[in-house]
# Entry
Amino acid sequence: MFPVYEEKKENLHLHSRIARHESPHLHNSVEFIYLTEGCLELGMGQELFHMEEGDFAVLFPEVIHHCQVFSGENNKACYLWAQPILCGQFATVMQKYCPKNPVIKKPQVHRDIVNAIRCLKLDKKEQNPNLVVEQAYVQILLARSIPAFNLQEKSSVESNDIIYQTVSYIAKHFKEEMSLEKMARDMGVSKFTLSRVFSGTFHRNFNQYLNEQRLNYVCVHLECTDKSITDISMDAGFESQRTFNRVFRERYKMTPREYRNLYREKFVLQNEII
# Structure
């Protein structure tokens, strides 16, 4: 998943992969999740929303969310991230509101949603993205999903200001050289207060949370680009290859190269279509 707040070169990013734990994060794009196999728990605010095969979720921009996977079975999903330029008239709604429950259950998922995802996957294979085509399909996804939601103001799902500021700060700066002291100074709070946010809210310390965001960035680029592993790790903010390899192996129990090869074997070579 793109746990980043930056502007991306592509207006639309799409790929299928195994669903995995994602720590709380936010981004400036709208995210669509179509679960193709297994199940996962999607967290937003203080709630967890269960997703099963065939369910569809929409996560509005600037909303803190996370994913948890508890089952040992294969859990696979198609993920799409669309920049606001693709959202047309819906961008205004998404700027102020978000769904109380972001999940649409399979029986209520409109067939146009599934067809739009399939068409976007086929269109991306041509590697010559057409802005008008992308806008059309993204707005079909929004037109068929937003009416199904009970919307609420975004401020009502923010647990408190310091948590939102913490997630937002990391999302904006994780590629840079960072420390708990510098982050606390920039946010105007004590490092002890900030440390309690990480341990009490995220159940991990500052370095663990920061490395998770960097690794999420790394995995997306291992899966979706041909960039060298060294370039990806440096771009993600890891200062040394040794540290990156250690942290990556601790989390995924394999090397970055093994991870990339495994992903391509499961998803690219199978040429999976919904």
User: Anything to note?
Assistant: The chain has ten helices and eleven strands. Residues 5 and 27 are 4 Å apart (CA to CA).
